Amino acid sequence: MILHTDAASVAVETLNETHPDLRVETCNSYAGLADLIETIQAEVVYSVRFDGTPRFPKQALVDSETVKWISVGGSGTDHLQPWDPARLTVTNAAGVAADMIAEYVLGVILTFSLDLRGFARLQQAREWKAGKVQPVNRQTLLILGLGKTGLAIAARAKAFGMTTLGVRARPKPTAGDRRGARHR
User: Fold this and answer.
1) Which fold has domain 2-91?
2) Of 66 and 130, the one with more pLDDT
């Protein structure tokens, strides 16, 4: 197995603890991946685009005779297309961080609606003035993309009393839709 990332230390430590018999190699460059795959005859590669897409070593992965599974450390797999699904399994980590991203999004919304940065500046200047805040209750949030992350954001926004509108590329009903809602 190869961990193809510029930040492999935590994953290597975890794999060594949980699977001590698993041979794990790391590669922290795009240029070195093809040679490492060939040298160790890797069957599994966990890969992250850490140096941009244009230089990503797609061919080293999808053309390898030994690689049987590519696990992408992100949500997209477009940068690997096309591949032969009869020979190669490609999976991704879509939704793994959905809850954390949703909390971050709501935190940013509250930062603006409550002018937290403005209050922090006043506090730092030791000025105690009233500020203008706008509650998020009854506000409308448009969410582009209703995968796991979009749905997690919608659930949290609804808990704050917000109206949520969701748009997805391929229309399909979503749990919690109002009767007669239109899907776009």
Assistant:
1) Rossmann fold (3.40.50)
2) 66
